[in-house]
Amino acid sequence: MEKFTMQLMESVFRKAGAFVRKPGKRLFPGLAVASVLLFQPFMLPAAAQGVPQPSSPPRLVNDFAGILAQSAPGIERLLRSFDDSTSNQVTVVTVSDLGGYDPARFAYEIGEQWGVGNRKHDNGIVILIKPKNANGNGQAYIAVGYGLEGAIPDAVCKRIVEDEMIPFFRNGDYAGGLLNGLKVLLPLAAGEISAKEYMPSSGGFIAVFLAFILIVLVVSLVGVASKKGKGDRFGGPHDDGIGSGLGTWWLLSSAMNGGHHGGSWGSFSNGSGSFGGFGGGSFGGGGAGGSW
Known about the structure:
By secondary structure, the protein is α/β, with parallel strands linked by helices. The protein folds into two domains: 2-44; 49-291, Diaminopimelate Epimerase, Chain A, domain 1, CATH 3.10.310. The chain contains ten helices and five strands, in the order H-H-H-E-H-E-H-E-E-H-H-H-H-H-E. It has a five-stranded mixed sheet. The longest helix is centred in the C-terminal third of the chain and has 26 residues, at 205-230. The radius of gyration is 23 Å and the shape is globular.
C-alpha cells in the first residue's frame, strides 16, 4: 500500500511539473493537487493505525475495554472448544473507543489483519463491542467471513445484535448480552439451524433451542476429549476434564435463562491453555450491527 501511494505521488508530481512548464499556465494548481495527496495520510484516518494488535499470546476473547471481567476466561474456553469441534473461529473484541471509525470498517479490518478463520474456508466471525461511555454511544457489530455469509446473512446479524445483545448491553450486562448472542450465532455457524429457522416469521425458537443443546453437548464432549488427549489444555492443573464441559454448559444455559452468574463461573474459568492462533481467513463485507 505504501509503495502504491509513493508511486501515485511521484506520478502526480511529474504531471504537476509538466503542467507548470506549459506556457501561460500557473504554478499553483499543480502544487495544490500534489500537496493534497502528500498530506492526505495525515488528514484522513488509516484503518491500520486504529485497529489494535491481537493479544499475545493470541486469544479469542480480547477484552481491551475491560467490560467482561471474570466472565472472559469462561467465554474464551467456550470459543476455543467451538473452534476445535467445528474449525469456525469466533473472536470477541471490546474497545473503549473506535477512534472515529465506522464500526463495520473497524470489525472488518480486525478480521482481515488478524486473519480470523481458516484460510481455506474463510469461516471467521468478529464480534466487536464498544461500550457506551464518555467517547460516545455504545456500538456492536458482527462481521462474518466469506465462507459463513450464506449461513449468517446480514439480516440475521442485525437481529442478533439488536434483539439478543443490545437489551443486555443497555443495562451494562456485556457478558450476558454476548452469551445471549452466542447462543444463536454458534448453532448458525455450525449449520445446526438455518437463518430461515431463526428469523421471526419462521417460528424457529424450538429449532434454535434444540440446536443450541446439541452444540453444548458437542462442545462439552470435545472439552473432555481434549483433556484426555492433550493434557491440561483448557483447564487448570487440578481440572479433571469434566469441569471444562460443565463450565461450557453453565455459561450457555445461564445465557438461555436471560442472564449470567458472574463469579459463579470461577471454578470453570481459570484454564491456562493456549489458543493456537488465527488461520488467515478473509472478510468481504458481510455482517451488521447496532447502537444504543
